[in-house]
Amino acid sequence: MATHKFQTEANQILHLMIHSLYSNKEIFLRELISNASDALDKLNMLHLTDDKYKTINFNPRIDLVPNKDEKTLTIIDSGIGMNEEDLMNNLGTIAKSGTKAFLESLSGDQKQDSQLIGQFGVGFYAAFMVAGKVEVTTKKAGEEKAYKWVSNGSGEFDIEEATKESHGTEIKLFLNDDETEFTETFRLESLIKKYSNHIPFAIFMDKENYIPAKTDDEGNETEPAKTEVNNEQINKANALWSIAKSEVSDEEYKDFYQTIAHSSEEPLAWMHNKAEGAIEYTTLFYIPSKAPMDIYRVDYQSGIKLYINRVFITDDEKELMPTYLRFLRGVIDSKDLPLNVSREILQSNAVMAKIKNASVKKVLSELAKMMNKEPEKYDTFYKEFGNVLKEGLYNDFGNREKILELLKFNTLNSNEQTSIEEFIKNVDEDKKEIYYITGKSSLDMLKKSPVLEKFKAKNIDVLVLNEEVDTIIFPMVTEYKDYKLVNVTDAKLEESEEEQKAKEELSKEYEGFTNEIKELLGEEVKAVEVAPELVESAVAIKADKEDPAYMMAQMMKQMGQGGDVPEPAPILQVNPNHDLIKKLKESADQNLIADAAHVLLDQARLFDGQELKDTADFVTRLNRIITKAL
User: Please, which residues bridge with residue 162 across strands?
Assistant: First the structure.
C-alpha cells in the first residue's frame, strides 16, 4: 500500500468542499452518478471508434447498493475505469476528473460525435460531505490490474492493488452516523428521479416488493405474504426535452410537468425549443394553469431547472429567467457551460446571457400567439399572471413594447378589456397621446373619478389602471411606438378661445373663495384652483408634478420604499358650475364653510382611492353639515 498526500491547493479546496461549497448534501449522489455516466460515455465512444476496445464486453449500467447494516452506499459503473496513474491524476488533484484530458485526446469527427459530458471538476469530493471514509475500487478497460483508492478526506489517500473481475469503478461510501438516510431505497430512488432521471444510462437498485398472501375462494390462506427483492431500473434513462417534439405525446409533456412542478394540475401551455448554431441549448417551458402560492413573495422558489448536457445543476437560481416570468416551470439544458459553474459565473456568463435573452423573446412570442389564436386560454393566463407580467415594463426595457402588447386593459368607454394595439386605433392621430389613469380603488369607482369628466365630455377614451402595481410601473412607461402615454392629470386637452376666456373670468370671480378655502385647509393642500372642466363632481385633487417632494416620493415608491416618504400636499380643484360650490361661495356661515371645505377635501381623497387621515373628524363635520341642512 502506498500513501500519498493531496496537493496543497487540493487540501484547501477539499476542506472548502466538505464544509462550505454545497449547501445541500444530497447533491453528492448527483455528482457520483454524473461521474459514472461520464465513465460510461468515454468507454462507449472508444468501443465505437477504437479497434482495441471493440472486443471489450460493454454492458453500460449503473448500480446503487445500499447496506443499512454496514451504513454504506456503493455506486458501481461498468465504464472505462482507472489505473494507478488515473487515480493519482483524477482523485489526487482537485478540478480534474479525466474528462478534459480525454476530450483533448480526440480530434475531428470523434470529438464532434462524442457528445461527452464536460469537466466534472471537484464533484467526486462531494462524497466526503456524507462519508467519513471513501473506497474506490477500479479496473481500467483493456488492462489486467485493479486498484483500490482509500481516503478519509483529511489530507492523505492510499492506493493498493486489488481484485476486480470486470472493468469499471465501485465507489463505496462509509456514511457518517447522521447520514444513514442515504441507505433507504425510497430516499435514493427519489433523489435519482430528481437529479438523474435524465442520465442516458440505466440505473439499477435492489427493491423490496411486498406480495400479499393468496387465498382460496373461501378465504383460506393458500400462500403466506412475502417480500421479494428485485433488481429494478429506477430512472427513465432519457431526457424528455432532448427528444424531438414530434416524438413526445401531450400526455408525456403533462406527466413531466407534474413531476418538475410538483403539481397535480395540468399545465396551461408548454414551449419546447431546440437551438443549434454557435450556441446549442434546449428549453422546455411550461405555463401553470394556477399561480403558485409564493408568486408575490420575495423569496419565491424558482421554477426553472438548469441542466448542462443532461446533468442537473440547479433549480434555485432566480437569474436564469427575469423575475416577471417567474411563473414559468421547466428546463434549460446547455452544451456550452462548465458543469462546475457557480452562481456568480451564471450571472455574468455571456453564453447564459444569450440563452436567457433568446428564451425571453421566445416566451413572449409564444404568449403573443396564444393571445391572438387562443384568446380564451390567454384570458385564463392573464387572470393568473397579468400583474406579474406587468413588472417587465419596469425592469426589461428591451422588451417593453412586446410586454405592452401582451397586456389587457380596462377602458373608460367599454366594459370589455382590450389590447393596446386595438386601443390606439381610436387615438387622435394628430396628438398621438394615450391617456391613462391609475388608482388603488375599484374599477367602477376609478371610472367615476372626477378627473375623467372632461374626457367623457369630449368622448376621449382612457386606459383605466386600478391595480396597485399600475401606480408604480406606469409612470415609468412614457411611450409605445410613436405614441406618448400621458397620465390624465397631465393631459392638456385643447380648449377653444371662448373656453379659455371663460376659465380666466371664473378664476378671477372665485379668487376670494379659493383663497379662503386654502386658508381654512392650511398645509393639507398646496393650492386651491378653479376647474370648470369638472362636470358632475364638486371637487377633485391632483398632484403638482413639478413639486420636488412629489418627485422624491415617486422615486422612493419605485424603489419599494413608498411608505418612508409622505406624498406632498395635493392641489384641490373646485367646480365653479356645481350648485354646491356656488352656494358655498355665497354663504356667510364661516363654520359651515370650514366644515364643508374639509369634507369636500376628504371626498376628493376617497375618489382618488386614498384612505381618510381622520375618519372621526370627517364624520363629526359631516354630521354638523347635515344638522344645519335639516
Answer: 146
Strand extents, DSSP E, 107-196: 131-139, 146-151, 156-162, 168-175
In whole angstroms, give the CA distance from residue 576 to residue 456: 18
**What's the burial of 149, exposed, middle or buried (CB within 10 Å: 0-12/13-18/19+)?**
buried
Q: What are phi and psi of 31, to 5 degrees?
A: -65, -45
Average pLDDT over residues 384-396: 94
Pick 286 or 226 by higher pLDDT: 286
Contact 378, 367 (CB under 8 A): yes
Mean pLDDT of 411-417: 94
Cα dihedral 372, 373, 376, 381 sign: negative
Backbone region of residue 358 per phi and psi (left: phi > 0; alpha: psi in -120 to 50; beta: other values): alpha
**Of 82-96, 357-371, 503-517, the least confident:** 82-96
Q: Residue 12: its pLDDT value, please?
A: 54
What grid cell was written down for 480? 409605445
pTM greater than 0.85: no
CA angle 263, 268, 271 (to 5 degrees): 100
DSSP states of 613-629: S-HHHHHHHHHHHHHHH
Look at residue 489 in the predicted model and tell me its pLDDT. 84
Among 533, 532, 550, smallest CA distance to 475 is for: 550
Share the mean pLDDT of the chain.
84
Q: Which three cell numbers stand for residue 282?
A: 434546449
Cβ burial of 218 (10 Å; 0-12, 13-18, 19+) is exposed
Q: Rounded to 5 degrees, what angle do the CA atoms 83, 85, 88 make?
A: 110
Name residue 529's beta-bridge partners.
573
Per mean pLDDT, which of 235-249, 396-410, 562-576, 579-593 is the most reliable?
396-410
Q: Which 3 state secondary structure label does DSSP give 99?
A: helix
